[in-house]
Amino acid sequence: MDKPVLKVLSGGRPERMPIWIMRQAGRYLPEYRATRAKAGSFLDLCFTPELAVEVTLQPIRRFGFDASILFSDILVVPHALGQKVWFVEGEGPRLEPLESLNGIASAIDLERLAPVFETLRTLRRELPAQTTLLGFCGAPWTVAGYMAIGRGGAAHDGLRTLGYARPDFVDALLDRLVQSSIDYLCAQLDAGAEAVQVFESFAGSIPPGQFERWSLGPLTRIMSGVRARRPGARIILFARGAGANHIRIASETGCDAVGLDWHVDPMWAAAHVQPLKPTQGNLDPLALVAGGQALEKGADAVLEKLGSGPHIFNLGHGVTPETPIAHMERLIEIVRSHRIG
After folding, report:
1. pLDDT tens digit string along 238-261?
2. Minimal CA–CA distance to 73: which of 34, 115, 106, 33?
3. Is the pTM of this model over 0.90?
4. Quick one: which of 91, 93, 136, 138 has the fewest CB in 10 Å?
5. Annotated catalytic residue 300
6. What is the 3-state secondary structure (H, E, C) of 189-228?
7. Active-site annotation holder among 28, 32, 146, 184
8. Confidence band of 96 (pLDDT split at 50, 70, 90)
């Protein structure tokens, strides 16, 4: 059976546009909240295969998305490098700030991530035949900010300062994360992932003169490193805030598809990105929260502008906890009713 998401990633055109949603397993679902309550900590949820499988499958059972993305977190990589990681309820992740590479291992310990691979193997058996199983990791710049500063968000300003003040340290940390990401993604593919997505969540924090050094170069090395070991790997690259650099991402990294955040004009992407690579995205998550005309017009704009080329429908960032389930159901109706060309 042809899987619509994999067909797009191969440059093909399925009969209808496939859809999956970033953070589709999350707090907007009551069944997720119930399972999360059983788990204890967030990392316990990620590292308990029975529970991680359950929350990954919940949105597939409810909505029938065309792809199911592994329930985990980008910070399992620093965890597997030996850095202390924990989550503060209502605030997010925390790490012990890294001052030198002496604070982490020289290579990722894949044994510490064995529960993740068990989750993938189980999901591959239990997912519907037409559903693509996605793995993922964070991009080096995005993960490095958490590791060096101890948290994300505005803390990436601190990583940028470090990049100027201690460029050798930041370059070495990015190099360590490039190799760790290659090892981790290859292990996910071996465990059953059919494609993977790399999240460069803080591409927008990088000044133009440093984009190649801090983001584009490391991402390109990940793509080539994974392909050298797993030639058939399919890789989506989502670089939030990359702006016009989406063109370079499409043309230079070797990715199979370019994820577009909600800042990107679909008409611009159709003209400048989609001729180079398939695209994914990019409805504003808050239009989904609002529903009504905002949802209808926003979804129609994505379908109209990007629907004539190879495209996977998604949001321009993750679904938010306050999203009404009825709005998600309506979005799926809109996308499912759209017929390609």
Report:
1. 999 999 999 999 999 999 999 999
2. 115
3. yes
4. 91
5. no
6. HHHCCCEEEEEECCHHHCCHHHHHHHHHHHHHHHHHHHHH
7. 146
8. very high
Q: Which neighbouring-strand residues pair with 282?
A: 314
What's the sign of the alpha-carbon dihedral 143, 146, 147, 148? positive
Q: Which of 53, 320, 22 is nearest to 197 (CA)?
A: 22
Average pLDDT over every residue of 284-308: 97
- SS3 category, 339: strand
More confident residue, 135 or 341: 135
The residue from 28, 66, 73, 240 that is catalytic is: 73
Select which of 13, 16, 27, 112 is catalytic: 27
Give one DSSP letter per residue of 235-301, joined into a string. Answer: EEEEETT-GGGHHHHHHHS--SEEE--TTS-HHHHHHHTTTTS-EEEEE-HHHHHH-HHHHHHHHHH
- CATH top class, domain 4-337: alpha beta
Three-state SS at 230:
coil
Structure tokens at 95: 């790490």
Asked if the model's pLDDT at residue 154 lies above 70, the reply is no
Whether the bond into 282 is cis, omega within 30 of 0: yes
Selecting among 28, 36, 176, 240, the annotated active-site residue is: 36
Contact yes or no for 66/314 (Cβ under 8 A):
no
Question: Any catalytic annotation for residue 330?
Answer: no
CB contact at 8 A, 15 and 340: yes
For every residue of 71-135, DSSP letters joined together read ---TTHHHHHTT--EEEETTTEEEEPPP-SGGGS-SS--GGGGHHHHHHHHHHHHHS-TTPEEEE
Which contacts of 31-36 are long-range, i.e. CB under 8 A and separated by 24 or more positions?
31/58, 31/62, 32/58
Dist. CA 172–CA 285, nearest whole Å: 35
Tell me the residue type at 170: V
Residues 197 and 237 sit within 8 Å (Cβ to Cβ): yes
Beta-carbon neighbour count of residue 176 at 10 Å? 21
User: Is it the case that residue 340 has pLDDT exceeding 80?
Assistant: no
Q: How many residues appear in the chain? A: 341
Whether 146 sits among the annotated catalytic residues: the reply is yes
